Amino acid sequence: MGQDSSRPVQSNTVTVLADDQGGIKGSRIIERKAKALTNILVLGAGNFGTCLADHLASLDTSCHVTIYARDPAVVESINSHHLNPKYLKDIPLTPELRATTVLDASSVASVSVVIFSIPTQHLRDILEKTKPFITQNHLTIFVNKGIEIESGMLPCDIVEEIWGPEIGRAATYLSGPSFAAEVVKRQPTCVSVASRMHGRALRAQRVFHAPHFRVYDSSDVVGVEVAGALKNVVALAAGACAGLGFQQNARAAIITRGLAEIMRIGVKLGADPLTFSGLSGVGDLFLTAQSEKSRNYTVGYRLGRGESLEHVLATLGSVAEGVETTKAAYALCKKIGVESPVTNAVYGVLFAGVDVKDAVKALMGRDPHGEFHGIVDA
Ligand SMILES: NC(=O)C1=CN([C@@H]2O[C@H](COP(=O)(O)OP(=O)(O)OC[C@H]3O[C@@H](n4cnc5c(N)ncnc54)[C@H](O)[C@@H]3O)[C@@H](O)[C@H]2O)C=CC1
Ligand SMILES: O=C(CO)COP(=O)(O)O
């Protein structure tokens, strides 16, 4: 299989050109400290793990990138044919990318960067598996978006609970508007990366940065995580409105009121309100809540059209984090005493048999109140 001509391997020049599919062709615009970063392991060979591994493998040939998948058929196909047979199926992957089913002491010890691209409800499992091998020296980067159902915890808190505060605090969290199917085509994309140890966010920024992939650093881990998790709940609501046949006014309303709700929850949990105006906030909300490329929007849309949740999830073929996060966020908001009408409405439709039309009626029929109620007076 030859290299896809729309996705050139990058060299060390600074030329940035549009290719024939509108992707960006060219090379890194900041120096990546390849020698210091050395090898990278990506855990999770779904849509996003595959696209990030492909991205990193294409950046620097002196840096070996390995992707871990549980399915031997996926590993065999990536190694022999440079194709993932399950996700991003038609995209030829960078030939330098290697795949493995092995996750052990030596596979983790031989890399300095470990990227976790595993759905949130399975995060604990992979954290437990890697705990014996991860050290303070590893740069760890989490890209999942969600809240754990059982505990109501954000990924950052689960990481610190399982790995302990010292190693946990050094973890970094990447989030923002980044459909895998576009990143893998080198479409211009901007994201944020946050860490409680800011120097780690700067390191993660250098790992990913490329002409078509721009990374902004942040110290607001909670804000970035709350925004990434809850935009999926709002995307479910926006999709449902579209499925019902509501038009642009309704979409703008649900996105904006959804953002106010995300901010109320985030501020209560200690986030910086400014984060919600950034890439992980408005950026990802805007992307996900208005695009049929979003799995969460699609789930909402199909519910609005009258399909059952069970049927939609059985035929989606990939994770829609917002579904489980809705359950987690519903319980969390009750626990922390934050008003969450959008989350409650989505919860009712997904898990309590409420008809989508009735959920909209209930949302619109609430008593009026101030626009920034619960945020400015929090
Ligand atoms: N697809 C996208 O465009 C983006 C996804 N994300 C986030 O990245 C995370 C992963 O999403 P996708 O890759 O799209 O999901 P996906 O549904 O395409 O793939 C999930 C992958 O995780 C693997 N997996 C599940 N449990 C595992 C475990 N215990 N150990 C090892 N592997 C396991 C599955 O086998 C599958 O390969 C989600 O939290 C998602 O919200 C973030 C940005 C963009
Ligand atoms: O998070 C995403 C883009 O930033 C992907 O959204 P979906 O999970 O809804 O497809």
TrEMBL record:
SUPFAM superfamilies per UniProt: 6-phosphogluconate dehydrogenase C-terminal domain-like, NAD(P)-binding Rossmann-fold domains
UniProt xrefs under NCBIfam families: PRK00094.1-2, PRK00094.1-4
Protein name: Glycerol-3-phosphate dehydrogenase [NAD(+)]
GO terms, biological process: carbohydrate metabolic process; glycerol-3-phosphate catabolic process
Catalytic residues, chain numbering: K231 (proton acceptor)
Keyword NAD: yes
Binding site for substrate: K145, R295, N296
GO molecular function: glycerol-3-phosphate dehydrogenase (NAD+) activity; NAD binding
Domain (Glycerol-3-phosphate dehydrogenase NAD-dependent N-terminal): residue spans on this chain: 40-196
Gene3D superfamilies: N-(1-d-carboxylethyl)-l-norvaline Dehydrogenase, domain 2, NAD(P)-binding Rossmann-like Domain
List of residues binding NAD(+): G44, A45, G46, N47, F48, G49, A180, R295
Subcellular location: Glycosome
EC number: 1.1.1.8
